[in-house]
Specification:
Elements (H helix, E strand, L loop, with lengths): L5 E7 L12 H8 L3 E7 L12 E2 L9 E2 L1 H10 L7 E10 L2 H8 L3 E6 L4 E2 L1 H6 L3 E4 L9 H12 L8 H11 L13 E2 L2 E2 L9 H19 L1 H12 L1
Parallel strand pairs: 1-2, 1-6, 4-7, 5-6, 5-8
Antiparallel strand pairs: 3-4, 9-10
Helix pairs in contact: 3-5, 7-8
This protein binds 6-chloroguanine.
Length: 235
């Protein structure tokens, strides 16, 4: 069977930021193995005037600059053959969650548009029916780190990137709970014992302890996730 590949295409004013952290660890190793590919395009290359203008002042005022629709449209047209959804990284977007990450990992790739300044002219976003994605309720100076985060979260789900073990462990988080705490040697550190059940070798008891801990900690730390979890259990 042909092994499918995941192709990331990034449109950015700062192509030198890539691969950045994606060159290390799991992402870097799998990139070198050809499990996924990364292509970056400099949005500035699609400027047509002699000053290479890519932005303009916002209609209505307010300061900052807005990426021009025709520049972004030209960049998107250039990568028309690149596979997958077109994603605009913006704090106005839908919050990234693990379900979205799984959906993206099931596609042949994705094209990421990184905004800078005050954003991108909305008309090109709407005309291209781009998915708008945010990584959290805070403001970054640009979409590049957000694109890296989305790519990292997708890449670790691609076949062959992680061992089976880790994949299975994730399934416990896939049910919407935070993961239980982890411990390693020594059994007693600074006078504090690791939970005895974990060293018992009793797999069923360990699994029970881990689920109970995951539930307790989710309830305590993330009441929002806990509510969702309870609702999902009722279905
Ligand atoms: Cl995707 N972009 C920017 N600039 N800031 C953000 C973000 C994205 N997600 C959260 N904050």
């Amino acid at each position: 069977m042909a092994v499918s590949r995941w192709d990331a295409t990034v449109l950015t004013l700062f192509p030198q930021m890539f691969p950045g952290p994606l060159a290390s660890s799991l992402a870097g190793k799998s990139l070198n193995q050809g499990i996924w590919t990364l292509k970056t395009l400099d949005i500035r290359d699609f400027a047509s005037d002699k000053h290479q203008t890519v932005d303009g002042t916002p209609f209505g005022g307010g300061g900052g600059m807005v990426l021009k629709a025709d520049i972004v449209a030209a960049a998107l047209a250039h990568v028309a053959e690149a596979p997958g959804p077109r994603i605009y990284l913006t704090p106005r977007g839908r919050l990234l969650d693990q379900q979205t990450v799984r959906d993206l990992a099931g596609q042949p790739g994705a094209v990421f548009l990184c905004g800078r300044y005050e954003g991108v002219d909305q008309r090109v976003i709407d005309e291209a029916s781009m998915m708008e994605v945010s990584i959290g309720d805070y403001i970054l100076s640009g979409g590049e780190p957000a694109a890296m985060i989305v790519i990292d979260s997708v890449v670790r789900l691609l076949p062959g990137v992680m061992g089976k073990e880790r994949g299975h462990r994730d399934e416990s988080f896939e049910n919407g709970l935070l993961e239980h705490a982890q411990y390693t040697q020594p059994r007693v550190w600074h006078g504090i014992e690791a939970p005895a059940v974990l060293a018992s070798g009793h797999h069923q008891k360990i699994a029970q302890w881990r689920l109970a801990e995951a539930e307790r900690e989710t309830q305590e730390r993330r009441p929002d996730l806990w509510e969702q979890y309870l609702r999902a259990q009722q279905e």
